[in-house]
Specification:
The protein is of the alpha/beta class and 204 residues long. Helices cover 42% and strands 15% of the residues. It has 9 helices and 5 strands. It has a 5-stranded mixed β-sheet with strand order 3-2-1-4-5, sandwiched between helices. A hairpin with an 8-residue loop joins strand 1 and strand 2. Helix 2 packs across helix 6 and helix 3 crosses helix 4. It is elongated, with a radius of gyration of 18 Å.
Length: 204
């Protein structure tokens, strides 16, 4: 199976296809970020695959090519406070809907990595879609680069947690830094309750 098989059956019907993916479902800190992207039918950017399989440098390079080539793309985010309020699954769904609605071109169908978003637009949900679908892979790369860069910038404000290294994921060093310093505003309170007792509104 090549990574255009999912798109091709819609392209043959003259349909506009958007790939949708999220990044940041699992971290202890920061937002969940979703991207929807419509790529042109006649070209494929070499090297595009699941963002997790690419080096940081390669992701950055491909992200610029994808943005230059895309018919339309939109990156949305739902912050940690909203994640705590509505839970991560609902936050992902909300974020994906925001991303699709943000597109300047309305797609006929969306290819979505795994999650049933409840979109009004017809959707096909593809398990491990960021490995199987070109459009979803493009969305994965844009979302990953955006979120990683955001967390690097936030690390300059919220120091002492190593956010620039782990991007908010639950590494041993990150967990130890929370225990030592207490959480900051970026931390998802519902994600750290197993090892942090909130004694002062959950913030440092």
């Amino acid at each position: 199976m090549d990574n255009l098989e999912y798109e091709r059956k819609y392209y043959e019907k003259g349909m506009v296809v958007a790939g949708v993916d999220e990044v940041g479902r699992g971290p202890l800190a920061g937002p969940v970020v979703c991207c929807a992207v419509i790529m042109p039918k006649g070209e494929v950017i070499d090297g595009v695959t699941d963002s997790k399989k690419l080096s940081e440098k390669k992701r950055e390079q491909l992200a610029e090519k994808i943005k230059s080539s895309a018919v339309s793309y939109f990156i949305a985010q739902v912050d940690q406070e909203e994640i705590d309020r509505i839970n991560i699954l609902n936050a992902v769904k909300k974020c994906m809907v925001m991303a699709v609605k943000g597109l300047s071109v309305t797609p006929d169908v969306t290819l979505v990595d795994g999650v049933d978003t409840g979109l009004e637009i017809p959707a096909e949900y593809v398990i491990k879609g960021d490995q199987k679908s070109y459009s979803i892979s493009c969305a994965s790369i844009l979302a990953k680069v955006f979120r990683d860069n955001m967390m690097v910038e936030q690390s300059k404000i919220y120091t002492g947690y190593g956010l620039e290294k782990h991007k908010g994921y639950g590494t041993k060093a990150h967990i130890e830094s929370i225990k030592e310093n207490g959480p900051c505003k970026l931390h998802r309170k519902t994600f750290i309750k197993n090892f942090w007792v909130d004694k002062a509104n959950g913030e440092q």
